[in-house]
Amino acid sequence: MSVAVPAGFRALPLSLAQLSLAAVLKCGQSFRWSILSLNVPSNSALEYNLPTHEYRLCLRDRVVCLRQSPDTLFYRSVFPPLVSGDEETREAETLGWIRDYFQLNIDLVELYRQWSLADPIFKRIQDRFEGIRMLRQDPFENLISFICSSNNNISRITKMVTSLCRTYSPALLSLPPPAGTDLTEEAYHPFPSPSTLAAPEVTAKLRALGFGYRADFIQKTAAMLVETHGLTRNPKTSMEASEEWLMTLRHLDTPEARAELLKFMGVGRKVADCILLMSLDKREVIPVDTHVQQIAIKHYGFRGPTKSGTMSPKVYEELSCKLATVWGDYAGWAHSVLFTSDLKSFASYGLASPSGISISTPSTPGLTPDRSTYEPVDSPGVATPRSTSTPQSKKRKRGGPKRSGSKTPSSEMEETLAQLEVGVKVALPDESGQSTLIDRVKRRRRGTVSVR
Fold first, then answer.
1. How far apart are CA 337 and CA 316, in angstroms?
2. What are the φ/ψ torsions at residue 58 (nearest 5 degrees)?
3. N or C: which end of the chain has fewer CB atoms below 10 A?
4. Where is this region: Disordered (predicted)?
5. Helix (H, G, I), strand (E, B), or coil: what is residue 203?
6. Which residues pair with 375 in a beta bridge?
7. What is the DSSP letter of 248?
8. What are 153-190's pLDDT values in tens digits?
């Protein structure tokens, strides 16, 4: 059933298998999208394929608004008053930006098919986590956002980036909420420029706003960009010279581009790799942290943590190369799907609810497992377990209870997770006879139950 185009919007035919806004805009790639509920009853949304949310992002000169049905992406752009130019031309520019930002020239369905043929683990989750693709973000915004990500979680990073924009970038315009909602009017701010964040007083102000040690990293990185590449603004693009220089890193090979990023304050290997993947077209790059290492250990036969608990550059490189061998040229994209599938805030994503209605949007974003339970050491962006974390294995005491059956803890967990992914509830008593195996698996993943 086709859906009527919302008033003021235009329609772009696009399936959820190619792009799922509900997943892509909430999985920790970008932190500036405003997500507004349209207050559509779930039964009506299901029966009539109605959009349930509106997504808004402030660019340099406009606010882009998106809605989505199962087979259509609806879009419109809102400009400040008295902006000159033909409406058709402006909307064509917005559509061009959408195609570039979401990289719609890349057939995601075909990539999913290739990854599923090469990887049985990916094949198990592909239907439930469809439509997750990499964004092609503005490199400067991406750089500063991921400096904020060090030892942090999605919710707090979002608050920091929002605070940064409101403090250092004048509002472009204000928009009322979608019709039929009781939200208040919201002001939309573009991302601030390098020259604005390079001012010496920025550090103290950001510390007062709760940025902690990241405040110094942000100011010094912006200052380094401005001092090295200048602040002349291109009137055609409204970009400063240092922003345009960051764009040129897209044309370097991966090691060269990474080496340039590692020169900045607050940028370690993992943060650099996030920027390479999410804004500099390095699609094969896999940002590695202890959370990704746990996925590799659990599913791909990678070795466990070192005795010290730290991730050495050698381990980082070995893990990255191993996963790239599995997934190929778009390994970073495939990694993002696996990463999203393992987030706590996506635990019910894509599963059928008790009423039989498929859950198509994730719950409120929570903590990313790597950022909420690990702290960086050595260099920003490379994480290591907290010293107070629960050990992952303990030797069984002589004469203690044995595990019933012949299944190993890992195979038992794998079987349970496989059933969880298709919404099957498994009832099996634990050691105390009180809880289900699902509960045990969840506790193990949180580190609260040791595996003997």
1. 19
2. -90, 115
3. N
4. 357-452
5. helix
6. 384
7. H
8. 999 999 999 999 999 999 999 999 988 777 789 999 99
- On whether the CB atoms of residues 55 and 25 are closer than 8 A, the answer is yes
At which residue do the structure tokens 């080496």 appear? 259
Q: What is the pLDDT of residues 407-427, one digit of tens each?
A: 444 444 344 333 333 333 333
Number of Cβ within a 10 Å radius of residue 284: 17
Tokens of 187: 């002001």
Q: Which two tokens stand for residue 117?
A: 């043929």
In the chain, count H helices and then E strands.
19, 11
pLDDT per residue as tens digits for the range 329-357: 999 999 999 999 988 888 888 875 433 33
Check: CB of residue 419 under 8 Å from CB of residue 428. no
CB atoms closer than 10 angstroms to residue 86: 8
List 26, 220, 270, 282, catalytic entry: 270
Q: What is the percent of the chain where pLDDT is above 90?
A: 61
**How far, in Å, CA of 128 to CA of 134, rounded?**
17
Q: How crowded is residue 76: how many other Cβ atoms within 10 Å of its Cβ?
A: 19
Structure tokens belonging to residue 312: 């050495």
270 is catalytic: yes
Token pair in block for residue 197: 């964040």
Token pair of 281, please? 């077209």
Cβ neighbours, 10 Å, residue 88: 8
Beta carbons within 8 Å of 428's beta carbon, 6+ residues apart: 436, 437
Q: Cβ–Cβ contacts within 10 Å for residue 324, how many?
A: 18
Region of residue 136 (phi > 0: left; psi between -120 and 50: alpha; otherwise: beta): beta
> Is residue 448 pLDDT above 70, yes or no?
no
What is the reported pLDDT for 327? 96
Residue 185 in contact with residue 175, Cβ under 8 Å? yes
